[in-house]
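Hi there. Long-time user, first ticket. I'm pasting a complex I've been working with (about 382 residues overall). I'd like to know whether the download I got is complete or cut off, because the file seemed smaller than I expected. Thanks.
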Amino acid sequence: MGVSTAPGARAPVLRVAERRALPVGGHDRHQSPAQSRPNLSFCNEAESAEFFKTTTCCVSPRYAPMLFSVRCAPASVCGACPTCGGSCVPDSVSEKVCHAMKYLEHVDTSHPACGDLYDELPLWSAPFGLLLLERMPMRPGLTVLDVGAGTGFLTVELAQRCGAQATVIAVDPWAAGMRRLRRKLEYLGIENVRLIEQDAAELDLPEASIDVVVSNLGINNFANADAVLRTCYRVTKPGGRLLLTTNLVGHMQEFYDVYRATLIELELADRLATLDAHINHRATLASVTTQLTCAGFALLAVATDSCRMRFANGSSFLRHAFVRLAFLPAWTSVVPPEAVASTFARLERKLNVVAAERGELALTIPMACVEAYKPGAPEARS
Ligand SMILES: C[S@@+](CC[C@H](N)C(=O)[O-])C[C@H]1O[C@@H](n2cnc3c(N)ncnc32)[C@H](O)[C@@H]1O
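Hi, the file is complete. Here it is re-exported in full:
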């Protein structure tokens, strides 16, 4: 094998497709690194970590957790691995068996790789972020609080756009996301950001210390949104701004129409009320502005827009990484666990029919950017 192993290290369980010899350095001279990437599979995460610790290989260590999570699945779904008797996907056979419904598997947001991959997802965050950035006051020396910063799409942007004299404080309890943000900041050499890994409702920043509070797609995700907004109000300077974006009721209406029809067809009409409750949990302009004013803010402006997410069909839509991470858990919880697979199999077929009729599956996302201020310094309103 063309791999190096540290003296004394336990040999990792490694299956390389066709057991082709790899030169040290990971790829032979006649192939590009991508072409020669070995097809690795490990029986558990410790083994994959050990392999990447002791091996010089064209697969970067930062992809090791991803390889692990891509190749492995619960034994209950795929059957036990003949090598380890555990949870490793036993090569191509069970991959074929479980591939069709793999998108229903739980996405573990606490896994470090999830934070890494989330960085590839700002396509969802971006249109909202652009709405917000368009309205963001840009002055040197601002102290900005990014609430629900996630992997820091907006934090990184604001820290750079507002300049080194500005301070951006990013708060989010999502450890994997904050870890990713920390790495981005280190890599980019950005020093004017402070990270606070906790629930924003519990922030103990000094009263009236923030010039601008921003939150991109946060409010819909805060279980305790009213408490978070009250804290935001407390820490904002009089005259200071709050800018938040959210998707609105009407989000993916085209999908929900098909979901509704599916429930009726499958004689699961008793789940329609649950589906409606899920649809209606999203913000409306009225609900957001009420929440802000209840927290003490005064409304300044509302900008609305909409964008579309377009897919070839329902199959590509349901398997999209971000759809799985952000939406599928709530969608599957509409039906009882024992009905999830059959419901989604039918739903997928129906979405595919709709896509074939329309030439694509396009989903509308209504968006809003709401701007408010903390009363007390009227000049800040100009
Ligand atoms: C849809 S993500 C948006 C992330 C980021 N702002 C962006 O635009 O990419 C919502 C974020 O809110 C965070 N969140 C949820 N509850 C929170 C809370 N109570 N306080 C702070 N952040 C929270 C989540 O962990 C998640 O990172």
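A couple of notes from our side: Strands lie at 143-147, 167-171, 193-196, 210-216, 236-247, 298-311, 361-373. The chain has a mean pLDDT of 78.
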